[in-house]
Write a structure and sequence with these properties.
Pfam families: 2OG-FeII_Oxy, DIOX_N
Order of helices and strands: EHHEHHEEEEEEHEEEEEEHEEEEH
Number of domains: 1
Bound molecules: 2-oxoglutaric acid, fe (ii) ion
Strand order of the largest sheet: 1-2-14-11-16-9-6-3
Helix content: 10-25%
Keywords: Iron, Metal-binding, Oxidoreductase
Largest sheet: 8 strands, mixed
InterPro entries: DIOX_N, IPNS-like_FE2OG_OXY, IPNS-like_sf, Iron_ascorbate_oxido_reductase, Oxoglu/Fe-dep_dioxygenase_dom
GO molecular function: metal ion binding; oxidoreductase activity
Structural class: alpha+beta
Number of strands: 18
Family: Belongs to the iron/ascorbate-dependent oxidoreductase family.
Shape: globular
């Protein structure tokens, strides 16, 4: 692949520097007070909530250790992911839905530049109910259903088992985040009771001959509630530091998960917390794998700042929007190059 394919070339301002900034990096938070407790130790939980609050405010990103997800399960999923992607393109292309989601695909664009990656998406709930289209006046719904990969054996079972763990961890993190905002621990659960739209993504970034021009994933913010990411030892994820807008490499930490606040938490918190821009670099020698779990609410969730957090001094900064409509709009625009930027939450910002 000597020729440079222009579809992958980032605008000059988005091209990555290949030298690495080794900064102190995002906070690492030990979750053992909520995972390994018999009788809850309230002072340990209180200080954990404070750590979460400052990580969400200062970075929008953090890593967690002692999270309760069995390492053996993660290793089994990582191994199966490698075996899956090692198949031929023809074989992988069989594992796809007509809509291009969920399943295998290799043509995703971020901000209209093609990403140097291939992915496999798998829904948390099968089927997942979503709006028929992004038209606000159309109440029609449709279903997304999971593919059934036959190879490697037990792939589907491993993925399902792993998703269950991601949901458990997701709910625990949401409790900590709710407490850190000063609202009830279970405040966010109502948005997940019906028609959760979460999904697991397996990312494979093959070696790239021009890593100074292309990106595995271009700069973006995650649009859902929370992302729980497992990255391998190769590294490549960079986060835009809020204090000085520098791209900071997130150093791979064995058996840790990287958590990032998505756009919906930014809105629920009325901008107290911010969904932070990030991207994934590629390199000439090593392939890289990463596994994000996008923890998303029911399609009919109306996204707006929490009533407890707004008042005359701190009025709502956003007009409400329907999550499902946003999701479907994004899915329609992610697989082709368009002339305009796709939908972002600032489109809902009040003047
Ligand atoms: O591969 C990574 O480290 C990040 C992936 C990512 O940001 C995404 O898939 O939304
Ligand atoms: Fe992301």
């Amino acid at each position: 692949m000597g020729e440079v394919d222009s579809a992958f070339i980032q605008n000059p301002e988005n091209r990555p520097k290949l030298s690495i900034i080794q900064a102190k990096g995002i906070p690492v938070i030990n979750l053992s007070p909520i995972i390994h407790h018999t009788a809850q130790d309230s002072s340990a939980i209180e200080s954990l909530v404070k750590e979460i609050a400052s990580a969400c405010k200062e970075w929008g990103f953090f890593q967690v250790t002692n999270h309760g997800v069995p390492l053996n399960l993660r290793l089994r999923l990582e191994e199966a992911t490698k075996v899956f992607f090692a198949q031929s393109l023809e074989e992988k292309k069989l594992i796809i839905d007509d809509n291009g989601f969920p399943g295998y695909h290799d043509t995703e664009h971020t901000k209209n530049v093609r990403d140097w990656k291939e992915v496999f998406d798998f829904l948390s709930k099968d089927p997942t109910l979503v709006p028929l289209n992004s038209d606000e006046n159309d109440d029609g719904v449709t279903q997304w259903t999971n593919p059934s990969p036959q190879y490697p054996p037990h792939f589907k079972v491993i993925i399902e088992e792993y998703i269950e763990e991601m949901e458990n961890l997701g709910f625990k993190l949401l409790e900590l985040i709710a407490l850190s905002l000063g609202v009830e621990a279970k405040r966010f659960e109502e948005f997940y009771i019906k028609n959760q739209t979460s999904f697991l993504r397996l990312n494979h970034y093959p070696p790239c001959p021009y890593p100074h021009l292309a990106l595995g994933v271009g700069p973006h913010k995650d649009s859902g509630v929370l992302t729980i990411l497992a990255q391998d030892e190769v590294g490549g994820l960079e986060v835009k530091r809020k204090t000085d807008q520098q791209w900071i490499l997130v150093k791979p930490t064995p058996d840790a998960y990287i958590i990032n606040v998505g756009d919906i938490i930014q809105i629920w918190s009325n901008d107290a917390y911010e969904s932070v821009e990030h991207r994934a670099k590629v390199n000439t020698e090593k392939e890289r794998f990463s596994i994000p779990f996008f923890f998303n609410p029911g399609y009919d969730t109306e996204v707006k700042p929490l009533e407890e957090l707004i008042n005359e001094q701190n009025p709502s900064k956003y007009r409400p929007y329907k999550w499902g409509k946003f999701l479907v709009h994004r899915k329609d625009s992610n697989f082709k190059k368009q002339d305009v930027e796709n939908l972002q939450i600032y489109h809902f910002k009040l003047p």
